[in-house]
Design goal:
Chain B: It comes from Neorhizobium alkalisoli. Chain B: One of its GO terms (cellular component) is plasma membrane. The structure holds two protein chains of two kinds. Chain A has eleven helices and 15 strands. Chain A is an alpha/beta fold. Chain B has a single domain, classed as ABC transporter involved in vitamin B12 uptake, BtuC, CATH 1.10.3470. Helix content of chain B is about 75%, strand content about 5%. In chain B, the strands form two sheets. In chain B, strands 1-4 form a two-stranded antiparallel sheet. The longest helix of chain B is centred in the C-terminal third of the chain and has 27 residues. The N and C termini of chain B lie close together (about 10 Å). In chain B, about 50% of the residues are buried. The chains are: A alpha/beta, B mainly alpha. The interface between A and B is large, with 59 and 52 residues.
Amino acid sequence: MSDKTTDKTKEPKSSITRRSTLLGMGAATGAGIISSVSPGFVRYAQAQTSEPIKLGFECHRTGIGASYGRWYERVANAAVKIINDEGGINGRPVQLIVEDDGTDPKRGAEVVEKFATQHKVDAVFGTLFSHVVVGAAPRAGELKMPYLVVSEGTHVSSGSLNRYCFQPGITDVRSQVTSMAPWITKNLGKKVTMIFPDYAFGYDHRDNLPPAIKAQGGQVVEMIAVPPTETSFTRYLPRIPTDTDVLYHIMVGPAVLTFVTELGQFYGSQRPAIFGFIDSVEAVNLATPQLGFLDGTYFWEGMPRYAQKDQSQWDKLYRAAVGVDDNGASKADPKDISTYAHMYGVWETLFTIKQAMQSAGYAGPKDKAKFIEALEAIEKFDEGRDHPQGDKIFNGKNHQAYGHQNISKVNGARMDVVHRTSIEDGMYEVKADYTKMSL
Amino acid sequence: MTASRTMRVIALHVAVLAALFLVQFVLPDYHYLAMTRVMVLAIYAMGYNMLFGYTGLLSLGHAMFFAAGLYGAGMTAYYTDLGVPLAFLIGICCGALLSLIIGLVALRTTGVAFMIVTMMFGQVAYLTITYFTDYTRGEEGLTMPASARNFDFLGLHVDLTNAVLRYNLALALLAITLFVILILVRGPMGRVLIAIRENEPRTLMLGFDTFRTKLGALVVSGTISAMAGAAYGLLFAYIGASFASIQYSIEALLFTLLGGAGTVLGPLLGSILMFYMIDIASEYTAAYLLVTGVALVLLVLFFPKGILGTIRERWLPWLP
C-alpha cells in the first residue's frame, strides 16, 4: 500500500481548459450549440479584485465534530479579527466565510466545491475530522483550491492527498506518538494495550503506536478496536491482558464517560498506568464525577488546557483573545469547556496563511500557485503571538508541521504538564513529496 | 394505455433530460457541480423507488447496495490495473450479486420484519467495511489514484477531473436509468409489482410468482443503486464507510418520499429539493436538519404521496 501511496504523489493532471472541454463536448454531442455558449463550469475566470481576501472555513458545526467546530469557529473569528485590526493581508481585509460540513465527507466535498465556485474563496481551512478531510481533499486538488486542514491525521503527511493540501497548524498523529513513545515506555511501562475506536481517528493510532513502542523496546500486547456505535465497553475490558503495564486509550465522543466509568468498575483500585489522548475529553469538564477514575492518569495535549505555572506570554495572549480562562473554559460560561489542546491549530493556520500570502505577494486567485509555493518554502515557525503553542519545523515536501507535544497528569480536576517533547522527538523519515506534483 | 398517453410520457421524460442537458449551459459554477452529485444520488433514489415505490417494500439497508457499487468499483480502481470502465462494471456486478443474495434471504419476510432485516444487513455491510480497515481504510476511506482520474478508453482520453465530462456522464447514466425504469414499470413486470404493492395475496392467488417478481425488483433496485455508488466513487474520487451507514439508506427513502414514491421522476425531484433545502438552510442556521425535518413532516401531513404523487393524483393521472 505504501508503494501505491507513493505513486499517488505523482498525481499531476487535473486541468480543466475551455479547449479540452469544448473538444470533449463536441465529441460527445456533435452539436454546434457549444460553440456559442459553454457549460457553466468552464466560464471560469477569476477576476483580479481589490475585494477582501476570502477564506472559507469548513466547520464541523453539526455532527460528531460539533464540539470541536464550535471552538474552532471562535478561534478563527479571534484570529481574523487580529489580522484585520493589523491591516489585513497585503493591505486587504480578510473575510471569513463559514460553511457547515456536518462532519460528513460527502457534504465536506460539496462544501469545498461551494467555496471554490460560489463563494470563490482564496483558500479553505479548518477541517478537523480525517474522514471529512480525505473525502473533500480530492475535490480541493482538482479545483486547485488551497486546503489547509487542522486534523492531526497522517493523510497529509503520508502523501496520500495532493499538492493543495497542507497541515501547518498542528502535528500529525504519527509525530505525536513517535515523540511520546519514549516517555511512555520509560515512565509507565513497556507492555501497552491499546483501546481505540474502530473509526477514522483511531486508525492513525493503531498504525503508528505499535512501531513507535517497539522502537523503544516495548510491545503493544493487545489492540482492542471498539466499533463507533458501541455504548458499553464491559465486554471489551476482559480482553486487556493482565500483564499490561500501560492502558493507552482514545475514545472520542459521548461514550467516553461510560468508558471511564466502566473502566473504574472493572479495575477498582488496582489498575495499570493509563495514558490517553485528550481528544477523549476535549470539551468535557474533568470535574465530571464519572471521570474521577482518571485522576493520576496521563494525557497527551497539543496545548495545555490549564494555564501552567510557567505559562508563556503567548499562551496568555492567545487565551485572552479566544476568550478562554485559566481552566480552559469559556470566560463567558465556565461550564463551556474548550477544545484547547487542538484549537490553537486554527489560529496558527490562519497566521500561516497570512505569512505565505504576504511572502507570495498574493493579490488574487491568479496567485494561488505562488501561494502554494510560498507555503512550501516555509521551513520553520518561531514561537510567538502567531504560534503560541511553540516553535515548529515545517516540511515543505509533505506539507506537515512538526512541533512539541505535552504530556499532562490529571491532578484532581486539572492537568499539569509533566513532560514536553522536543521537536526532534517527533521527526520521522518523510517519503512523500508533493512538490513533484504539478500546480 | 393509449398510444397518445405513451407519447406524452416519453415526451415528458425526454423533455426532462433535455432540460438537464441544456441547463448546464446556464447554471452557475457551484450549481453545475452540485447537480452532478444530485443526478448520481437521484439514480440511487430511483433504484430505491423501484423497490419501495412500485413494490411496496421499505428497505432500511439500501446503502449497502450503494456501498457495494462504491467499493466494488473504487477498490478495483485503487488496488488493480483493470481500469476504470471495468471497475465500474465490477461495482455494478457486486451490487447485483449482493442484492440477489440479500433478496433470497430478506424476501422471506414482509412488512416491518423486512425493514428490520434489511437494516440489519445494511449494518453488517457497514461494519464489514470498517472491519477490513487494512484494505478499506474504514470510515476514513480512500481517495482514487491518478490512474483512475485520467485514462485512455477506446482510443479516447478520459479526464474525470473535468467537470463537464462528469456532468454529462452523470446525465447519461441518469437517462439510462430513467428509461430502464420507465420500460419496466410500464411493462408487465411493473403492473405485477404494483399489484403486489396493493395486494400481494390477491396477486399470488391470480397465479403470479410474487416471490420471484419481488426478487427481480430487488435485484434491479440493488443493481441501479450499486451503479450510482460505482459512479459516485469514480466520478468524485472518494470511497468511505459513511456511505454504507443507515443515514444514506434513510436519505434514499426521504428523496423518494419527498418527490413522490411510485413515480419515475419523483426521486429526481426529491433529490434536487432535498439537496437545496439542506444547502440553503445550512447557510442560515446550524439547525438545518431540523428545518428539513419540519418540512418533511409538513409534506407527509399535507402531501402524503409526495410532490409528483400528489400532482398525479390531482391533475396528471397519466404520470408514470
